[in-house]
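Archive entry. Fields below.
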Amino acid sequence: MSVLQRDPQDMLRVLEEDGTPVGEVPDLSDDELVTMYREMYLARHFDTRAVSLQRQGRMGTYPPLSGQEGAQIGSAFALDEEDWLFPSYREHGAALHRGLPLKRTLLYWMGHEKGNRIPEDVNMFPVAVPIATQVLHATGAAWAKKLQDEDAAVMCCFGDGATSEGDFHEGLNFAGVFDTPNVFFCNNNQWAISVPRERQTASATIAQKATAYGFEGVQVDGMDPLAVYAATRAAVEKAKNPDEGERRPTLIEAVQYRFGAHTTADDPTVYRDTDEVEEWKKKDPIPRLEAFLRETGRLDDEKVEAIETSVKDEVAEAIEAAESEPRPEPSEMFSNVFAEQTPEIRAQAEAFAEMYERHGDEGFLRE
Amino acid sequence: MSQSQQTQNLTLVQAVRDGLHTEMTNDDRVVVMGEDVGKNGGVFRATEGLWDEFGDDRVIDTPLAESGIAGTAIGMATMGMRPVAEMQFSGFMYPAFDQIVSHAARLRTRSRGRFTCPLVVRAPYGGGIRAPEHHSESKEAFYAHEAGLKVVIPSTPYDTKGLLISAIRDPDPVIFLEPKLIYRAFRGDVPEGDYEVPIGEAAVRREGTDVSVYTYGAMTRPTMEAAENLEEDGVSVEVVDLRTVSPMDKETIVESFEKTGRAAVVHEAPKTGGLGAEITATLQEKALLHQEAPVERIAGYDVPYPLYALEDYYLPSVARVEEGIRNAVEF
Ligand SMILES: Cc1ncc(C[n+]2csc(CCOP(=O)(O)OP(=O)(O)O)c2C)c(N)n1
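PREDICTED_STRUCTURE:
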């Protein structure tokens, strides 16, 4: 029986908090498992560095992901090459798994237009800042794949807060009605900035909302990357190849926690207890997977050290590359608004260029 | 209502808070609702401490749903409450747009006066704070274009409190846009008690005889600075701060122009269809024979607001404002 066929209140888990398997370990090779660990480790290290870049004034506001690596990497891992990811703004981990260079992520949060350009070979949409808006895009994209007879699933990530927006409900409703190949992946990290999950919905779970739209909803332990992988993989397979009578879409609620602030502009001590944070830190997905991999002989001190070193180098290199990127040309503002510049935009761009000639940066940049 | 002589030195965002606090104390029909307005005190701290003082029924953290916030606020307003809804950023107000324009704005008209909508929708707006995508736009023209909405944009702490109190007491819906670039940029004297700054009245911030410059919100500062610089070159600039962009104080706008015959408009919103066009048309309609030069529009460009590495090029800078005013004067 599929792991998706369960009561939405019965949370799927593969690894205990100490890494002991309590469920069926998904069929992943040793290499894949170690890669999963490495990417989670990379996401965590990237995150730590990004937060400190912001603190040092080298980057703008940044939304940290720490605590959510298991859900992000575990879910992205379940996608096939041809599948698509429609992220929110916190999915730097899922994005790196899809192949988005870290440098792009950094550039985006450093305010460079270039950071929003997804490389041609990466099946992923740019960050969606307006909450839940991407849910409908993901439904439409999946619908297109189905209408075009292409075998591809579309996964959309969003938070628990996003499930309160009309767009979320409309997106899932369309998916149910048109039976689109979607995986709706809710990163329920318990908080939407300062608003707790209980203030978003009176439902016992977010997963159960799928029932109302006529497809499966499953709750997984979002701090358990293997459980996340198992559920997402089943959902991806079902999206593309449903059995007789099965509905393609799935809603996955990955129960997890944001260890840090909502963004670097937020102070979580105003609204939540540090005790709560400490409790959740015991469920940290990284040591959890590490314990399992060590216990089963897939990792040892030496391999972990090698991962640490290579991850640090990789992130340092990306930061170096992003920081040596020159300030974008002001004229970039006027490009890509339309396929062809309108006469008015061209006139404005020319007027700007003349003024820029006369004044240089001094006439524009504030301290 | 007592007029207290005591003043406090507040930032603009503190004046928002003080205005809310004052009206919540005066009138228990007033409730504040929105995302993170409760325990967190708002992401800009505009509602700081209100939840502790007034409790969960009057300072309400809502689910994350702007249409939900605006729509339920409309329902509350029709039933005799005085909701003040916060949109966390004006860029996230669009889900509420339908509720605001299709209902709040026209409930009085549609019901021939049977139902009214004394609602305030507050939102920080505008650029210049190195914010992420979708956090910096100026879309006041959307709301000003909608019949049945008043649109207020303060630029000083004093006006902020007085206008907010007026907005809350107004019998009709008011969109209250707060220029977040100057939320904490400076302080100003703000009376402790309650007072109103009337909606629909512009303020002449600086008198001058050569040219009239119309602006509002965060652009008031670079405009004033440009005016000072031009003064040194012997150009006398009058600066009019609209304070309310709808209904616009056309009397003050025209009066100033009749004196100077030359004008510039400064706003950070895109040029096309921006309020500069409305001001220009007003001058053309009402004071054509005084006009000695084309009206200069110093505005944001007709492009999506860029990510922050380029925002300083997008926003009217002091140099750009100065140059635009000069064009109007030297024509
Ligand atoms: C439509 C909209 N409203 C408000 C915001 C401001 N905002 C940014 S993140 C956030 C909370 C989101 O919470 P959740 O969906 O749970 O995702 P998380 O940030 O926890 O990953 C809010 C209110 C926004 N970006 N878009």
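CURATOR_NOTE: Residues 67 and 97 of chain B are 7 Å apart (CA to CA).
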